[in-house]
Design a protein that fits this description.
Blueprint (H helix, E strand, L loop, with lengths): L2 H20 L7 H17 L5 H14 L2 H7 L10 E5 L9 H9 L3 E5 L6 H13 L7 E3 L9 E5 L2 H10 L5 E4 L3 E5 L6 H12 L9 E7 L5 H7 L9 H16 L5 E2 L4 E4 L9 E7 L2 H10 L4 E5 L27 H8 L2
Parallel strand pairs: 1-2, 1-4, 2-3, 4-5, 6-7, 6-11, 7-10, 9-10
Antiparallel strand pairs: 8-9
Helix pairs in contact: 1-3, 2-6, 8-9
């Protein structure tokens, strides 16, 4: 398959997701909608944090971004004829979190050797079955593996800080992108309006805060009123319908109480002062600052630990409130251009 064929196939997937979400079957067989609905429901059973609404939000993102205009911007400008085997080790913290890596490998003309996460396999099965049904040649573009072998040319792996040490050692001879844990933060100065804070809650609560693009900590002025955060959070009461989230809330609250640690809560989210960047599920860390200049220096020193910084343009390249989980296809994780990396594998 050449790059144009690959782009057309991916664009068709985007149109299908859009049609499925709108229940519009002018282009597609209605049976595919029923098949997709079944797989979405199965995915909710596979992972307790993959509720229906979050999966639909994920599919809506890809419906919006998988089109020829976006894909041509992402894809290589020159022809790629030297196909390589690229191992992709996928995470499973949020739905289809590794799909962008597959997308880059596929559009660059390589073959994906995929080690799926046990927490997120069903949605990938859905996608690959759809693509194979539309284009039988797609079978030569990927391979699903259960055990990692070294019949590969390069590696893209995502894991936690412990697994990444293993990846670095195990794949030391291969070109690689190894992603570690990163976190996202928000900077508030007290001038934000209620709408800003409502959007910030989306950055915090979407996908139960389990993505690296979810805000896990806020930096606030010393006189900031935390009741504003609690008030804004109330629109996300639906998150309490998830037993896994509730269990995390109860557990973290119990630990803080046993350790006699100070915290604030409203039954929905726990606010705790901390120097740490990454917070547990159901907990939002906060830290007070007295100088924006000093805070900028701190963030710059720790930029390799950060994925997004949310603010009303208080720092350079801020992400807008409510937009952390809506990156463009050209917003590469960890600021590592995956397409450039894959093109160099060809050299």
């Amino acid at each position: 398959m050449n790059i144009n064929s690959r782009i057309k196939l991916l664009s068709k997937l985007g149109r299908f997701f859009s049609a499925y979400l709108k229940k519009n079957n002018n282009e597609f067989d209605k049976r595919l909608f029923n098949f997709t609905e079944k797989k979405v429901q199965e995915a909710t059973y596979q992972n307790s944090f993959f509720d229906y609404e979050n999966i639909i939000n994920c599919l809506n993102y890809w419906a919006k971004h998988l089109n020829e205009i976006n894909l041509k911007k992402l894809g290589p400008k020159d022809k790629t004829e030297n196909s390589k085997n690229i191992l992709i080790i996928m995470a499973g913290n949020i739905p289809l979190v590794g799909f962008h890596d597959f997308l880059c490998v596929f559009i660059c003309g390589h073959k994906s050797i995929i080690k799926k996460s046990s927490k997120d396999s069903i949605l990938y099965n859905l996608i690959f079955e759809l693509l194979l049904g539309w284009e039988p040649k797609f079978k030569n573009c990927f391979k699903i593996i259960e055990k990692i072998n070294l019949e590969i040319d390069a590696v893209i792996a995502t894991g936690n800080n412990n697994s990444t040490h293993f990846f670095e050692k195990y794949f030391n001879k291969y070109p690689k992108i190894i992603r570690t844990n990163r976190n996202s933060v928000a900077i508030l100065n007290g001038q934000e309006n209620d709408e800003d804070l409502k959007k910030l809650m989306k950055d915090i609560f979407l996908y139960y805060g389990m993505g690296c693009r979810n805000v896990s900590k806020i930096f606030i002025p010393k006189d900031y009123n935390l009741d504003r955060i609690f008030k804004a959070s109330l629109e996300w009461k639906k998150i309490l319908n998830n037993n896994s989230y509730n269990n995390n809330y109860t557990y973290n609250k119990s630990v803080f109480l046993l350790n006699n640690e100070k915290f604030y809560e409203n039954g929905l989210i726990i606010l705790k002062e901390s120097k740490k960047l990454g917070s547990p599920i159901s907990v939002l860390y906060y830290e007070k600052y007295d100088s924006l200049h000093k805070l900028k220096k701190y963030l710059d020193v720790n930029k390799d630990k950060l994925q997004c910084i949310v603010s009303n343009n208080l720092v350079k390249n801020s992400t807008k409130f409510g937009m952390t989980q809506s990156p463009s296809l050209l917003d590469f994780a960890d600021d590592l251009n995956t397409v450039d990396f894959l093109l160099k594998v060809n050299e």
